[in-house]
Amino acid sequence: MPEGPEIRIAADQVEKAVIMKPLLEVSFGLPELKGYDEWFTGQAVSAIQTKGKALLTHFDNGFTIYSHNQLYGKWYVTDSFTYPKTNRQLRLALHTEDKSALLYSASDIQVLKTEDVPMHPFVKKVGPDILSEDVTANDLQFHMEDKRFFRRNLGGLLLDQAFVAGIGNYLRTEILFVTGIHPSKRPCDLTAEKRQDLAKAVIQLMERAYRTKGITLDPEIVTRKKAAGEPRSQYRHFAFDRHMEPCYQCGGPIEKINVASRRLYVCPRCQPN
């Protein structure tokens, strides 16, 4: 399932394809949105914003298309009016003279007045988006000390989109691993210095995953493993999906546990409970 970095990468691709270009045709795949096709045809996309796993496609006519990828949504960018071979259902198509941006499988798509976007239920409650907003480690530390988050286990808190937008399963594992924090710990259990480390790790790993298309492992280790001819699966993560493989820090086995009904990987030695 895509997380914040993957959605931001998709947004960049869509933006490059359609930004400020007259749209020859816009079509919606959901029956309840069919009547909006003509509203957007001939208009231009003025900006594309991400809020975690949601995309906000802003148009110069004062309207915005809100779309959330949920579990299976996927954007494709193709040559104009060219469609990929897929069994997915087309939900939204933006066609320019040279490119098409196509959203498949997403079921949460809405048309909003741009001025009303801040009051949308998801946008209103979602936390800071590291990849689309100017968020510092100090900002994030102050945010985690809010009473809504301060006494919650980090294993569950990091998946809460109201805390930080776009963190999913692999980023949760990696953030906790690099900071040496067990998922049962709460922000209130950590020193102020450790909370600052956690805030820095959130920003660093989200930005790294964005730059590398999902790789969170230390760049030096990645370079070494690539030179040895190892496959991408062997140099993607510190701990995620590495059950019983050796920890990069202590050499002990990584273990898989379930937290908040989803798999999470920890090093028992480096992340003591």
Automatic annotation (TrEMBL):
Matches recorded under PROSITE patterns: FPG_CAT (PS51068), ZF_FPG_2 (PS51066)
List required co-factors: Zn(2+)
Task: Answer whether the UniProt record assigns the keyword DNA repair to this protein.
Answer: yes
Q: From what superkingdom does this record's organism come?
A: Bacteria
Q: What is its EC number?
A: 4.2.99.18
Q: FPG-type domain: from which residue to which, for each copy?
A: 238-272
Q: Which GO terms describe its biological process?
A: base-excision repair
| The Formamidopyrimidine-DNA glycosylase catalytic domain, residue ranges | 2-151
Molecular function GO labels = class I DNA-(apurinic or apyrimidinic site) endonuclease activity; damaged DNA binding; oxidized pyrimidine nucleobase lesion DNA N-glycosylase activity; zinc ion binding
Tell me its family: Belongs to the FPG family.
Which protein is depicted? Formamidopyrimidine-DNA glycosylase
Species for this entry:
Salisediminibacterium beveridgei
